[in-house]
Design a protein that fits this description.
The protein is mainly alpha-helical and 175 residues long. It is built from seven helices and no strands. Helix 1 packs antiparallel against helix 2. The chain is elongated and about 50 Å long.
Length: 175
């Protein structure tokens, strides 16, 4: 692995604490700040640029741009119908840039599982243990909101962690 790929993986790893903050903020306030989304896209574009320089191909960058645009266009009507928050739409549109084309399949599977788990928890909060968490979920259910940024961020964290671990192991043992 070259130095540029190591820096690319480091940029993605820097996004993990930011994604954690986004998940926590979305869970507690149901808001995703524009500055956080802009920081994520900057980290993602920097990482993709480094990968493109090493590979000598802009395929991954193009695939990420196409996927991000497609996600924004598909999810925008859900925001217009008030079924999804604007922050969730923006965060979802940035994810292909942050993850890259090679990680989109893993991210999609993780997001599907986590979104399903979130829907189950929101629909049946009585299955949770007693305490403040259960009361908070019941409060969210009464308000009719779902912090969808949480499963997006957790799926992204898991995908990035997997890519960093696989990339780091290739760096240590190239055979």
């Amino acid at each position: 692995m070259s130095l540029l790929l190591a820096v690319s993986l480091s940029l993605r790893a820097l996004a993990i604490p930011l994604l954690g903050r986004i998940a926590w903020t979305d869970f507690t306030t149901q808001k995703i700040a524009n500055r956080d989304v802009l920081l994520l896209i900057c980290l993602g574009l920097g990482s993709l640029q480094l990968v493109a320089l090493v590979a000598g191909s802009w395929w991954d960058m193009g695939l990420s741009a196409l996927a991000g645009l497609l996600l924004f266009v598909v999810l925008f009507p859900f925001w217009a119908l008030r079924k999804l928050g604007a922050g969730d739409v923006k965060l979802m549109a940035v994810m292909p840039f942050l993850i890259g084309g090679s990680g989109l399949a893993l991210f999609s599977i993780l997001l599907l599982v986590l979104a399903f788990a979130t829907a189950i928890v929101m629909k049946f909060p009585f299955m949770l243990p007693e305490g403040a968490f259960r009361v908070y979920i019941q409060h969210l259910d009464r308000k009719g909101v779902v912090p969808f940024g949480v499963p997006i961020a957790i799926a992204a964290i898991c995908t990035i962690a997997f890519e960093v671990l696989v990339g780091a192991s290739a760096f240590v043992n190239p055979f």
